[in-house]
Amino acid sequence: xxxxxxxxxxxxxxxxxxxxxxxxxxxxxxxxxxxxxxxxxxxxxxxxxxxxxxxxxxxxxxxxxxxxxxxxxxxxxxxxxxxxxxxxxxxxxxxxxxxxxxxxxxxxxxxxxxxxxxxxxxxxxxxxxxxxxxxxxxxxxxxxxxxxxxxxxxxxxxxxxxxxxxxxxxxxxxxxxxxxxxxxxxxxxxxxxxxxxxxxxxxxxxxxxxxxxxxxxxxxxxxxxxxxxxxxxxxxxxxxxxxxxxxxxxxxxxxxxxxxxxxxxxxxxxxxxxxxxxxxxxxxxxxxxxxxxxxxxxxxxxxxxxxxxxxxxxxxxxxxxxxxxxxxxxxxxxxxxxxxxxxxxxxxxxxxxxxxxxxxxxxxxxxxxxxxxxxxxxxxxxxxxxxxxxxxxxxxx
Length: 397
Ligand SMILES: [Zn+2]
Known about the structure:
Helix content: 55-70%
Number of strands: 9
Bound molecules: zinc ion
Strand order of the largest sheet: 1-3-2
Distance between the termini: 50 Å
Structural class: mainly alpha
Number of helices: 16
């Protein structure tokens, strides 16, 4: 680079009317121009490779006809793509230049909760993932992750790293990307050295970390709650552990599947951004929900993850339940210890030092129990809910 500059400067130095500064400027402009041309070529190459394999993917896939699902993915996808094309995110692994693409989003009819992307911004989501997610925030998180793989040009990077050692076969990489979980996954990958090399060199880990962080960077700029990225990772990690054959891993980087570690890394980033972790706002699995009590007429229950926590009766049952649900959600979102839930005076249930709710004699009569019994049962129920949350958040490995 430097010798080129000197050569340009020397060859032009015979022109007496030009200053050295203007010559150096011109030399740098030429270098910049060259780099820009190279950059455009690289992006074009990604789009060409992606388009080629998109044809293959689309030949082998059955697309959903559910227009609501398609519209949802395209709406959230377009929003996240716009942000990606306006944001020069930090890439901890991959191409660090500001890469923009014309992203497309399609929905494949397949049960595994999976998504993947091809070079050049071709993003695919499976119907199983859309059934799995519990909010647009979670969908945005998954799409932001997939967009980041394309944006950071992970396949091209992997290809370049790999080619330093062995000749690599792009079709093999693409076959690996397309391979979601299930029995075929192993068969497709067996006998190919590329994945073991990628894993051996830690590239799959680095690619996943980079896409997770890239996703967070897009999420904090979006209207979606970044916690959605964490909750979807936490629940996918549970699936990964309990049903590895139903793996939700994302294509070639499947050797670094959803895990507690990845969710924890995201939580750390949110902390750095000063973003509160609000699981109740992005996931129904982590939310206290108010419903009519189907056993007692006029009464209202609060449920958590499908189980009843408590029931209120009387004229203002609904108002009290709504207020209590807000307080319960804030309390549970703070990941308290189970012992922090306790009974207080006059039918009160405490969360730490805060009053979460208060039972009335009317509540007790409606359920044929004493106020003290209601308190005792409710404390146990809330502790049970906290225990369920703890399993999902902390004990996923
Ligand atoms: Zn990934």
